[in-house]
Amino acid sequence: MLRWLKSIHVKTFGIMAVATIVGLGFTYFVINAIEYHVQVNATSQRLDRSAQKLASLAASGTPKDQLIMATSLIPQTSFAIHQNGHLFLTANNSSGLAAPVINANSKIGAIEVTAATGVPYTDTLSMELTLGTLVLVLLTLAAALFISKMITSSLSDSISEAINAAERVASGDLSARIGKVGSREFQSLARAFDSMAQKLQDHENEQKKFLGDLSHEIATPINAVSGFALAICDRTIKSQDEMSEAAWLIQEETDRINHLLKDLRTLDRLDIAHTVSREAFFIDLYIKELVLRFSSNIASKHLAITWDAPHEEVLLDRRLLDMVISNFLSNSIRYVDPRGKIRITVKKHQDELVISVADNGIGIAPNHLNRIFDRLYRVDEARDRASGGSGLGLAIARRATHSLNGKIEVTSESGKGSEFRLILPLEHHIPEDRTTLSSDDNVQCEKLDIATQG
């Protein structure tokens, strides 16, 4: 990297030096042209004055020999004097006139003088201008050298900070940051890198917390199973009633582990990859089937459940949809007190399908709402363990919703109940080769009051 920076330094200096030399060369020719034109103007004015003076002398009757002597005093100039239109005198003081030739005319009475001279082009500059140009070249080259060193030095410091931070992150130190260094453009890169490192650090912290919580979740039922198994082996538990109770508890804890592992496999499968497989079905028939599937759980707590769904055909991944809505309903059943109420509502808003599951259960406090979709997070740890929840249900629901390109909204008030809403974009294309249900299956709005006689 340092070799690259040195190369940049040399290239920057070289480019600026070449640009300076080219610019000064152009300036040289411009100044030379300006000086030449100044010389031409001065020669023209001098020639006009000479022609006027010579015409004045000739008009005053100056003898011819004196006029010849006067013209000899003006070098590199040819003269012609006419009197009354006739040539009176000629004088040529140059072997040849350089281009361009400048002419001047002066007429006084019957006398007319014509003068001509050449202005040779020269590419030599004055000593002062030459020295000034040399000083300017040296100053410009020094400025180019300084600027190139300043740029490469700034880049070197910034890139060194970036390399150091990147190496620390690569070695596992996710707390490394570049910070505000270098130019404004480089700071944009630094902010992007720091944001990436922060997200990686947050993800690592979440994974560590998840693994810690997971080990605790697995250790609790395993310790219980191990304890009861040891009690059976060392004959601490002797009576048939104690043996039955121990066997029942072992079965309960084993079921809890299996349920947790099943949820973990489901979540892992959703995180790794899932191909969305859409199928056409009627949403009201799906809700009816869902309620019937949970009827025994609803009856055991003497709950009243109502549902309202249009006879609308939708094109969705039914398995993913069921992961979400089943989780909403099972949570409502779990956290609603006996003889509570649950309502499922399906509505269509423009190109969206909104499925709501509302209850009058224990609700969720505001400080928990932002965490309920985290893996293994529980609002009420003791109560949720007793009810058999793994703490992964809402995390699975969120991941399945993401696969459906939808979103979940939650409103809840502690002690008054919760409402979970799944909002999905609707697909309008329905395959033509689908199986169409008969009109006898049309269920508009149905209310189920499922209760068990005590």
Mind sketching the topology for me?
Layout: H1 2-59, H2 64-72, E1 77-83, E2 86-92, E3 101-108, E4 111-118, H3 127-170, H4 184-233, H5 240-272, E5 279-282, H6 283-293, H7 295-300, E6 304-308, E7 313-316, H8 318-335, E8 341-349, E9 352-359, H9 366-369, H10 381-387, H11 393-403, E10 407-413, E11 417-425, E12 445-449
Parallel strand pairs: 6-8
Antiparallel strand pairs: 1-2, 1-4, 3-4, 5-7, 6-12, 8-9, 9-11, 10-11
Helix pairs in contact: 1-3, 4-5, 5-11, 8-11
Q: What's the quick description here?
A:
With 454 residues, the protein is of the alpha+beta class.
Task: Walk me through the structure.
This protein has 454 residues and is α+β, with helices and mostly antiparallel strands. The protein folds into 3 domains: 1-170, no CATH class; 174-273, Orthogonal Bundle (Helix Hairpins); 279-449, 2-Layer Sandwich (Heat Shock Protein 90). The protein is built from 11 helices and 12 strands. The chain has helices at residues 2-59, 64-72, 127-170, 184-233, 240-272, 283-293, 295-300, 318-335, 366-369, 381-387, 393-403, and strands at 77-83, 86-92, 101-108, 111-118, 279-282, 304-308, 313-316, 341-349, 352-359, 407-413, 417-425, 445-449. The strands form 3 sheets. A 6-stranded mixed beta sheet has the order 10-11-9-8-6-12, with helices on one face. It has a 4-stranded antiparallel beta sheet with strand order 2-1-4-3, with helices on one face. Helix 5 packs parallel to helix 11 (393-403). The two termini are 81 Å apart. 19% of the residues are buried. Residues 381-388 and 429-454 have low confidence and may be disordered.
